[in-house]
Amino acid sequence: MHLSLLLPAAALLPQAFAQLDTLAKAKGWKYFGSATDNGELSDAPYVEILSKNTEFGQITPSNSQKWDATEPDHGTFTFEKGDVITAFAAKNKQMLRFTGGSWTNETLTAVMKNHIKEVMTHYKGQCYAWDVVNEAFEEDGRYRDSIFHKIIGPEYIPIAFAEAALHDDQAKLYYNDYNIENAGGKSTAALNVVKDLKARGIKIDGVGMQAHFIVGSTPDLKAQTANLEAFVKEGVEVAYTELDIRHSSLPPSAAALTKQSDDYVNTINACLAVEQCVGVTIWDYTDKYSWVPSTFPGAGDALLYDKDLKPKAAYHAVVAALGGSSGSVAAKEVRAGAPEETPLPSLPSPIPTTLSSSTRPAATPTPAPGTDGGAVGTVAFWGQCGGTGFTGSTKCAEGSTCVVQNPYYSQCM
DSSP labels for 184-201? Predict the structure, then answer.
């Protein structure tokens, strides 16, 4: 078979698999995004999916804006790799978010300030947010033993934010870290950064929760929501900036796949419950390019698409949590305190904005595949035929069968 006769993967992708950003914006978020990097952009089927801004409305370069990529030698700047990602996002009308890494790779304040100036000036006006300082703290809240902390002390963080504010007054300035998604010493340290900068009148706009989670060990909905609210209370927005939820061992069991879906839904629901949570970025969208296996041997399958670029059970769970169904988009959900709207009748019940002690609402039983769920009609190939809260027909068109993908989504295949 000639390769030229093969359809790109995205050409075979049903509409239900190209809606994450559309659904997220309907819920009031600014974006649903994905990380990527230069090597992946030579993979045509991968690019076909990544370039759909209805699926991913925001792009984060994994490494091409970090210090070693933009200033490989002191005083010598190169932006070639970063410009490729920037051009890709611009072409596809996708928001850009830069994670610049820790500004902790040199030894002098002048070097740090010059690096911030050069990189932010080059990309001025092209990105929504910068992670000005990244991963500054140990798990117990002590400062990491970086060169800048050794030489300058804790003042390097205010210096970095003050310098960043000089060079792009439109960009949001973030502190970004992992393991700050739940209350604890590290989260408290990050919260104190916000309080300190605000008290000094230094610009800080947001805090990014990296959210590199493990299936079964992810903070529950109540804990994540309370943590987000603690930061918002101090006058900043919040976002999940590098979300993935890895299995500790492979292949995952059916129970582990269900738990992964639940864990993803808890994080999505936490962001939905907090008005100033502006979006979620997954740390690349496919297991094919995940950082996890090389860092945690034996672990993996952490993302929403598998290695063959096919949506997984967790993907369908996220779509359902955002109010989506096959080929449909939910009406915009009203945040807590606003007048209620009636959701579209074909969609799952809207995510509640008030929390109970449980980690997620009780599930509505899913009609058994092949039975009539109460609605009249036949579901087309690739259409939704069941799932939590689903009220449509469960009868699939001739030649297809209703297959349970997860508790939230069944599909005619």
Answer: SHHHHHHHHHHHHHHHHT
Find, among 181, 210, 178, 214, the residue nearest to 298 by Cα.
Answer: 214
The rounded distance, in Å, linking the Cα atoms of 247 and 269 is 21
Q: Which residue has the tokens 């947001």?
A: 206
β-pairing verdict for 409-412 and 384-386: antiparallel
CA distance readout (Å), 121 to 78, 203, 269: 13, 17, 36
User: Could you tell me the two tokens for 286?
Assistant: 């496919």
Phi, psi of 206 (to 5 degrees): -160, 165
Structure tokens belonging to residue 157: 């963080």
Q: What is the pLDDT of residues 130-177, one digit of tens each?
A: 999 999 999 999 999 877 788 888 999 999 999 999 999 999 999 999
Q: Look up residue 227 and give its amino acid.
A: N
Q: What is the pLDDT of residues 80-108, one digit of tens each?
A: 777 888 889 999 999 988 775 444 434 45
Beta strands in 160-289 (DSSP E): 172-177, 206-209, 212-214, 237-246, 277-282
Q: What is the DSSP letter of 324?
A: -
Structure token digits, residue 184: 């604890």
Helix (H) or strand (E) holding 70: helix 67-70
SS3 sequence of 216-229: CCCCCHHHHHHHHH
- Cis status of the peptide bond prior to 8, with omega within 30 of 0: no
- CB count in 10 Å sphere of residue 335: 14
d(CA 68, CA 377): 58
* H/E stretch holding 261: helix 254-273
Question: What is the maximum alpha-carbon separation in the chain?
Answer: 71
**What are the respective helix, strand and coil percentages of the chain, to the nearest 5?**
35, 20, 50
Encoded tokens for 183:
């209350």
Catalytic sites, residue numbers: 135, 242
Instruction: Please report, for the chain, the start and end positions of each structural domain, with discontinuous segments joined by +.
Output: 12-321, 362-413
* Whole-structure pTM value: 0.70
State the amino acid at position 364 in one-letter form: T
**Which parts of the chain have pLDDT scores under 50?**
1-16, 101-107, 326-374, 408
To the question of domain 12-321 being in CATH 3.90.950.20, the answer is: no
The contacts of residue 27 (CB under 8 Å, 6+ apart) are 272, 322, 323, 330, 332, 333, 351
pLDDT of residue 352: 23
- DSSP lists the bridge partners of residue 213 as 245
The token duo for 38 is 């230069």
